[in-house]
């Protein structure tokens, strides 16, 4: 086992181990340099703040969702095929792949009559 690259256990030559470690390090750096933009949503008893998130079309992004309500909530978007259930006081995140330009509704499935919010890709 190579001490500087714990992911590699059995490669036939030292040169191969070093090349693999360099490749992993370069890939890790490329991922860090291309971090996802993060958008924040706060849900409170069926209402999302902000009610509209504007995102760039074609780019992956992350949404951090916090439940500031008194009970559970569920981020639900049929168009995006995403759902996330959160207990009161909990936070979590979801990653959305690049969207085509348009408007994508979402709502709190525990409070379906509270209205919809939208992600707008431009």
* End-to-end Cα distance: 49 Å
Overall form: globular
CATH architectural category of the largest domain: Sandwich
CATH topology of the largest domain: Immunoglobulin-like
Number of strands: 9
Q: In which order are the strands of the major sheet placed? A: 3-9-8-5-6
CATH superfamily of the largest domain: Cupredoxins -  blue copper proteins
Q: Largest sheet, if any?
A: 5 strands, mixed
CATH domain class of the largest domain: Mainly Beta
Q: Which class do the helix and strand fractions yield? A: alpha+beta
Oligomer: single chain
Roughly how many Å is the radius of gyration? Answer: 20 Å
Low-confidence stretches: none
Into which percentage range does the β-strand content fall? 35-45%
Mean pLDDT: 83
Textual characterization of the structure:
The chain has 122 residues and is of the alpha+beta class. The chain has two domains: 1-35, no CATH class; 38-121, Cupredoxins -  blue copper proteins (Immunoglobulin-like, Sandwich). It is built from one helix and nine strands, in the order αβββββββββ. The strands form two sheets. It has a five-stranded mixed sheet with strand order 3-9-8-5-6, with no helix packed on it. The protein has a four-stranded mixed sheet with strand order 2-1-4-7, with no helix packed on it.
Can you summarize this structure?
The protein is 16% helix and 40% strand.
Relevant terms:
122 residues; alpha+beta; five-stranded mixed sheet; four-stranded mixed sheet; 1 helix
Helix/strand layout:
Layout: H1 14-33, E1 38-44, E2 47-49, E3 52-55, E4 61-67, E5 73-77, E6 82-86, E7 91-96, E8 102-108, E9 117-121
